[in-house]
Records
---
Amino acid sequence: MSKKFCNKAKIMYGKDSLNRISFELSRNNSTRVFVLSDSTSMQSGAVGRIKNLFKGSDASATYYIIDVEKWSTTDVVTSAYQKFYDSKCEFIICVGGDGIANIAKAIKVLANVGTSDITQVTNLNVKDKVPLMLIPTSVKSVSYGVGNTSVVDKDNNKLYKLSGSVLCPNYIIIDKRVVTKLSEQIANERILLILGMSLVALSEPLMSISARIFAFTAMDSLKEPLAIDKHRYLGRTGEEIVIATVAAGIGFTGVPKCMLSLMVMHISICKNIEYNEIFFALLGKYLNLFLGRYSTDDINLLGKYLDDDSVFNITDMQDRREYVISKFIKIINELSECIGGVSSLSELGLEESEKSMIIDKVVNSYGSDITSAKVSDIQALMDSAF
Amino acid sequence: MSMYYEFHNPVNLISGYGIIPNSIGATLKALNSKRVLLISDRENNSDGTVDIVRKSIIAGGVNVGGVYLNVPRDSSVLVISKIANLCMINSCDSIVAVGAGSVLDTAKCVRLIISQNTNHITDLKGFDMCNRGVDMPLVLVPATCGTGSEVSNVAVVLDETGTNKLDFVTEELLPNATIIDGSMLVFQSSMEILSAAFDALTHAIESVTGRQRNPISTKYACMAIMMIRDNLEYCLCDNPKEEHLHKLMEASTIAGVAQSSSMLGVVHAICYSLGVVLEIWHRECTAEVLPHVLKYDFECCKDLYAEMFFYLVPESVYVSTPKEDRAKVFCEYIQSWYKRLHALVGGSNTIVNLGLSEQNVDAVAKTASRDGLNIINPRYIDLHGIKEILLSIMRGDI
Ligand SMILES: [Fe+2]
């Protein structure tokens, strides 16, 4: 049995990181660059900053600015790809948030596969010839920096989800000059997401060591707000939250099939409710049910985020486990309260009668990997969520 | 925070005990490789490792187009040119290497000159001198638990004269995939495992203390330290469990990721120099040099030592050590731990009985002082400082 992990992206973080773009372009022998962005980033001046970087440089850029909707559609992706194709560019830079990054990853796949129709893409094992550089202004989803994308085919009412190494961004550049400042409410929501995703990922026994490291890196970025009694948003900057979200996402890709994530996804699709809202409602219950899944090492490492090493005074490991996880559940509940989150699926409008349908969908997602133990775990989580 | 950092390790890590027979061919196939050049050394050929690797390649439906099994302990640019020629003559489209650091560094350099389309690898020496090269899949299989080369952007080889060390640092050296398999350690003696593990521990510590440290590589390093703490001693006993061997192997690889991102420091500058001047394997020296450099850097690194303390020591030591003493106990613990384990495996070698003496200390110090790694060391160091460290090793000051 082997564990696999790959994080293709070169992460460039901090002061003046945007200034290194020209060096990376010349390293890739790229002189024609396709800059994809959205109207919000255009108005905020983020695109203007990128434009300035091309002044006096050997590289030329073609700009394509679009209004991003909640879901990327095949129409939008096809026309963006056509523009990329006509421009004869050899490098993609994407400035903006999750929505535009989703489209950029789809263009990258098409450029590397050599087709203009995303619904026809089947073989993703192709060479990565056209690099993608993501420059986030804001990141609200852990899938931002990893190798997947979702595109809706409106005509056929079908959702295409693609994932694979060729979709991974080759660069993620986080420079505060283009990162959006966050309100306290939004920052709290992001912190809850990062914390939740990292904790859930760490509970998965098949997670690789590198993925665990990224989950803990994400937690490290939240160190200060996690200190007991000071867990609320304490002025973490936008770029600190962006790097933590990216790290949590990379950690999460190390989890082959996550029960909680599958359940949230199916409820989200069935009920058309935001992923995060459902995730937050289920999080505390998941941790409470599955606290036994954490390794002793991880309980100790998680304990270090709590107050002043007092966790190590608890000598009984089971007591320590319960103490650590209950502290995290407390933090999660308080953060959730801050952002007006709900704590049960019935509050989100899910009917008791829909339970078995969701359970079936989650079970089916595992395909031949399903076991009876997993089925009872899924049922237990669903029961506890009502 | 106004700092800048970057982190890049796109290597596909495939990890599992006993996976080599079924994973190398499959990995090559996924990389669209058809004809591979296999590189190793006599040691791995004679213990049967090369055969297992060869079978794994063939099992994946990939041809072995050429083999080179004579990589020396200190590889050189001449060896690299010879292998690159062999690769081209046999029309190989990919490379697999199995062995210790020297074999892996050699394979990385062979791929580098082919992908950069040059005959003169010396043109590429130094820091970050290469653009994106021609695609040529490279899969590395480490056979020891100390090198970290399987995931690093660094290669160290000797020049044509065999007397000067050449450093290559570029992301173009990073392999496409690395197969981490703890069963490789079954072939190693306890003494070899101990020195390799302390080399890996040093990679982790130097990457945390170095000027190029960053939050991601620091986390990699700390986890490596913790895994070495939890598994090393078990691996030195008779019939170690698979789980411990594999975790020690993984620890070495993740320390390698940290090292690749943050680089090393004076410990390695000195140990590489001992290798060049006295022909001692650098991994045989790191455990002995490390405490002296920790002492030299103490004032500017004590907070970082205190941070690593949690990951290095058993919980009982952690809870019983007052916060203000953690940095000091960190340094003491490393040395006493090594001494205990060294005695446990019946080790008797020291750097002095391997050859460091009044006669050659100046030459060792001079070579070490020219190493670029000194710039990354947290505290400024010059020829005088290095000689002082060497003299304190000779006197057995710590
Ligand atoms: Fe080393």
---
Amino acid sequence: MSDPGPSPSPEQSAEAGTLAARLALKQRAGGIVVPVVTVLFAFLMSGIIIAATQHSVRTALVVFKEIFQGAGLNWVFHPTTSLLDISAYNLSQTLLQTTPLILTGLAVAFAFRCGMFNIGGNGQYLVGLIVANWLGVDLAGLNPFLHILLCISAGTLAASAYAGIAGILKATVGAHEVISTIMLNWIAYWTASWLIGAGGPLQVSNNPTNPVSNQVSSGARLPDFWGVQGFQGLHVGLFVALAAVVVFWALLNRTTLGYEVRAVGFNPDAAAYGGISVKKNYFRAMAISGAFAGLAGTLDMLGGAQNYQIGQLDIPFIQVGFIGIAVALLGRNTAIGTLLGAVLFGALSYGSFHGLGSSAVIDPTLANNLTYIIQGLIVLFIGADVLILYVWNSRKKLRRPPGKTARRAEAAAS
Amino acid sequence: MADDLVLEMRDIRKEFPGVVANDKVSFDVRRGEVHALLGENGAGKSTLMNILYGLYRPDGGEIRLNGKPVTFSSAREAIQAGIGMVHQHFMLIPVMTVAENIVLGTEPRKGILLDERVADRRVADMAKTFRFEVDPEALVQDISVGQQQRVEIMKVLYRNADILILDEPTAVLTPQEASDLFEILRTLRREGLSIIFISHKLNEVLEIADRITVLRRGKTIETVPHAGATEASLARAMVGRDVLLRVDKGAPEIGDVLLEVEDLHVLDDRGIEKVRGVSFEVRAGEIVGIAGVDGNGQTELIDALTGLQKIESGSVNIAGHRLSHTSAREALDAGIGHIPEDRQRRGLVLEFTIAENIALHDYAKPPDARWGWLFPARMVGRARRLIEDFDVRGGGPSTRAGALSGGNQQKLVAAREVDRDPKVLIAAQPTRGLDVGAIEYLHRRLVSERDEGRAILLVSLELEEILSLSDRIFVLFEGTFVGEHTGDVSEEQIGLEMLGGKKEAAA
Ligand SMILES: Nc1ncnc2c1ncn2[C@@H]1O[C@H](COP(=O)(O)OP(=O)(O)O)[C@@H](O)[C@H]1O
Ligand SMILES: [Mg+2]
């Protein structure tokens, strides 16, 4: 009769409104516990799925070990720069995957901090990719340093302007950025397909039927600093992405622009009252967000890819914009959180693809899908992290002093 | 006498991490009395009632109901024992009817279906007995806040409560609705119900309560009968020191015109004309009050004066600068300070720190920033000084504004606006939701700002506040001024004009 078990704890039911508010605060404040628990939960769940489908708990453990090693994370136990070492090579490939994810993650995070949801990372990435390819091919013979700088700046600016369209639409006619960025994704995709399609302006010159772009000129290629040049070495784009993390942090926390972005993101009414133009900030933040995503595209083009082909770097394959959403959410839209989130997703996608794809632990196609399952679970748990926080808090409450009185009360009641 | 007691709470103790919300609190309630629990925000009133209602478990103490000790581990058990509570925030379902909301959980049934007819009839009967004046078939989302509160009370009565707890019931009501509520409470008292009435407003407590228990910082200070209690004595018990309830102010020293409004017309978001041809001026060194019932154009008028809203026609001049109504920035730069009516929605970014909130208008100017680069350390320095000057309690420069109590949030807003040294200070509902100590402070501050030579425009729904602070008073009714007075006008005269009475009297 007096069993308080099934009903929510008294403090919570009484203070539901303020609890939710406190949760929201904590979530924005960027505590470390919940993201970590989120990831652990996702791994635990996928472990259960593997164990269930493979009828073996041992397989699940082996799978995780293979992913870990496949991503080259075991490199930290015996660091070496020699790429003959398999863990070093794997790590370099993981970091190669991580580079664009850092940037698309920052793109999503920046828009979030201004209260907007930029789903257009893919489209903006494509714009950066295409512009870098065009200039990388057309300006062949330029001083390499100038050439690279030009390709990167032009691609980044173009993507920034492209995302800015969604910002302008929001600021002027109130079109929701989720809708407009999705539409811009498709416009970018079809335009790119036409550009490199048969007879298109950027299509490869020596084979008019092959829908692929030209290779960027060798002068415009980003130097690899780890690995064999031209053989998927790790290029200097990684440092550009790391620099972008610092820029993101400084821009947001140390400039008046960032102050405005955060004010608008938290409370547009208060921002307007404070004398901040909310519309200007919607446009500006969207443009900056697009610049991060576009930068990712230029680095990929001048670094690893060097050309663009329908069906290979096709929309279903270009997921960096979408994964960036998960990266930013997991990282709580902070600079450092986004960086860590990108490393996790980079390691996960390369590690499970490579580590499992080449080992005989489980079926390789299953291995690939496993990546998606884990990613999906992480996204799911990010959505549910308010719930996790709730459970976490009530657990703490139950262990605290009231524990004693509760027992006493129960003893008195019986 | 003791057999009259329906409820006794003895030495109740409740601790939250870092605060003792109730420290050996004791009080009792007699059959058929209205017992007020009076105390400043944070005194522990809601906590005590949540314990009684079974929502919190006390860390110590005893509750006796009709002489027998009881422990409730859920609200359901408290309800079964005849205790009902109306919370500060209503818990009604907007898309259901009044009757459905009232019977929810104890529905009369016909098979498995709700017997609508029986429900409606019972509710209608009850509404008639207690003169509630609500339509049982109306949807809750269509009725006023005052009526929603009555529905909450009926819900409690429907479950046969003998003890009714009302947590700050007047906070959401207009003065008229509040006096209707008091009428209902008197009826309930006659029917033999015991009512626990929570408030931090002295005049209300004196109007309705038979006995008054004062809480301060989690402790019972005293329980006094209505006879002999005065606003001053209660305020002293509540705050712990003598409180100046009347504002002490000298004659104004009037200077130049700093705010000049001419034939102003403003539309609201839906295109309805809310300000219809208002003209007035405010001079340096005077406080001009605008009285009126909520919704008569106050919000639109203030937004137009502060550049937050476009105007239809007319003009606003601030110290000789004519506003173009393009942004709040222009008004701020022209010398407007604005304490907005809703500090949480507009006055503060609750997720920002105190220091960041202090910088809300001037974050882009030296010393806070130069060439677009912020200097957070300088913001912190200024915040530290203002926290000290304005006695903001509950945190330092890097505390989140949302973590402060309402009174301290309001002090924070006031500190920021005054520190910018504005020529014109617009204060909208500056003391809404504050307790006596904080109100006293803000009133003194407004008068001293006036004496510094600022032009102050005070817009308030509290007639007393307008009367005690203003040197001149305008009465706003349906978007136009229906009265202009010097400070010594009677409350009745203004009250009449607020309801549009003057026109009819003249006709
Ligand atoms: N659920 C809670 N958790 C932590 N502290 C609380 C909680 N509820 C109230 N408090 C604290 O207890 C004190 C008393 O609060 P409360 O009872 O709400 O005061 P009142 O209703 O008189 O304004 C305050 O300091 C408040 O911050
Ligand atoms: Mg309270």
---
Amino acid sequence: MNKIWILAKKDLRLLIRDKTGAFFTFGFPIMYALFFGMIFKNMGGGGPTTMEIIVVDQDQTQASQAFVHKLNESDSTRIVEKNLEEAVELVQKGKKPAYVLIREGYGEAAQNIFGGNPPAFEIGVDPSKRVQSMILEGVLMQHAADNFSRAFSDKDTMSKQIARSRERVTQSEDLNATERVIFSTFFAALDSFMQNAPSGNTTDGEMGGGFGSMTPAVITTKEITQQKTDTGNTFNITFPQSLVWGLMGCAATFGISLVVERVRGTLVRLRMSPISYAQILAGKGLACFICLIAVNGIMLVFGMLVFDLSPNNYPLLVLAILCSSVCFVGIMMLLSVLGKTEASAGGIGWAVLIVMAMLGGGMIPYMFLPDWIKTIASVSPVKWTVIAMEGAIFRGFTLGDMMLPCGVLLGIGVVCFALGARVFRWMES
Amino acid sequence: MAMLELTNLCKSFGDLRAVDDLSLTIETGEVFGLLGPNGAGKTTTIHMATGLLVPDSGTVVLNMQGSPADPEVRANIGVAPQALSLYEELTGQENLDFFGSLQGLSGKGLAQRVEASLEFVSLADRRKDLVKSYSGGMKRRLNIAVALIHEPRIVLLDEPTVGVDPQSRNAIFDNILELKAHGVTVVYTTHYMEEAEKLCDRVAIMDNGKILALDSLPGLINAHGGQSVVILEGPDGEKRIETDHPLDEIVKRKDQSDIASFRVERPDLERVFLNLTGRQLRD
Ligand SMILES: Nc1ncnc2c1ncn2[C@@H]1O[C@H](COP(=O)(O)OP(=O)(O)O)[C@@H](O)[C@H]1O
Ligand SMILES: [Mg+2]
């Protein structure tokens, strides 16, 4: 153990000594994390593709069932029916982006187009998937309008609704430039779709003005997270994914440093010293682990000081940090065998990390991925790290809830380390 | 007493036999030279002797204790690898501190050894500088110092003078003679025959993974060096006479007026190598 610590200390000293390396491990990840974390997070949805949503049909009338059926037929949504409790939990755990609640009385309201209340929906969304919720709103509106327009064939009402949504997007203060572009594009697409949609009665167009104040449906959106969480703080949401970039930076740096030891000949001297191979790799692993914890800690303090990050369960956050760190130590080991030279190891390493991030939903929204990739993605440590972090920060996970993501992270870590260590030794001989 | 015993070592890389059935016994306290051209298999042999490479067949016994694959046995060896193995971003002192700790040194003992090693290779005044700022010769010297940090009983120096300025080179020679004076066993690989001639008690001549001859310097020259050559220079140019008795040849011609000058070429390791392989050591 003493020897392992000596090895690790040397690596940490080298890391600090090497200004560029330290920057790429600490400074750069923070910048990278902040920048891309936000951009990628906000891209968690972004176009009209299939979205899996839960429908809670409390109305159970013919009208509500017909609506669900239609929703299911739509290309943009795939429906699972659940009761409200299950639905809330699934969204809370981040397993589904949103649920739609059809309250009792929908059937009645749907028929009362002229008088009374329009049909009402409640959408429960994961606050980290705001784009999906916007899309869902659009889809619901579209369907409701379909009903609506059966009487009036009023595309203009829909257009107005869309225009209003677009306006909301432009005015919304908590959206950044990227989000705005995404939303605007989406609504523009929806609008043009509406304009080109075949319609039985377009001459009624001018009547649109008269119905401008009427809405085909009232949609209330509710963010589903643990109640005491301040969901208004977007950094709570972007933090976990941001952190992943820091962890990946750290794994890449140390993975490359192992390649550097081999290329520059210091590994030869280490192996000629009276220490075992296992100790050499363990030393590197320990240094990487300490660095990962440091990156976590720095990001956390940074988030709390600068962004008012407010994790709602510190012990579980510590657990999440430990497990994801173990996982990324394993990934470091695996990265170290991917290239023969410093440059190739660096290049291949980052390529692998980026693919992992993509598979984990860190870049391309998870829901856009084909099913077979989603299956592969379930081994992406990025995905599980995000789940564990989110669980501790704002999803209100219990210890039991943490078992799955943490178990998977530890498993990935151990398997990757064992595999990497084996290949590393094999490459030596 | 045998310090290092290599028996029937073989090592191939793919189709290439880098070391071919090599057997060697290195005695305690001697300076042993392994002389051969680039690619002869010297480094591969050193790597097997230190447990870095596992031989395809054959055995290595170190200090009568067993195989250097065992870390404890390995603690007896100090190695200065041919490829410099130093952390360029650490200072000379930090490198020594680190590798010394790995050897199990600590506290005052470590500090003393670091000090002594730095003095030994005359780097004490540059101890606080990063290794990357060192000259080639200084790096080579530090590479040797690291090998000596734990006062090993046997030191393996793999081409320790490659890329070194003449001054550092002489300093390294002095170091080796000093080690020898302290009873340390030294294995020295080189492709410079002058170094082997100057430093080594016994020399093994190696080519293509095999040992072609092994003896003391006079022994090698007697057996494989051939005759001395007397070279006479006159108006007609040089005249070479091969002989076992150069002095007689010169005395015989002491009255000849057409000899402007003469010199005698004694057989050396270069000639030994030429006679053994038909090739020059350096081409
Ligand atoms: N890891 C390796 N893989 C393939 N070939 C190698 C390896 N190491 C050495 N060789 C080859 O083995 C032969 C002996 O090399 P080496 O022991 O380094 O010679 P020397 O040290 O005498 O110059 C050379 O032909 C070299 O190219
Ligand atoms: Mg060599």
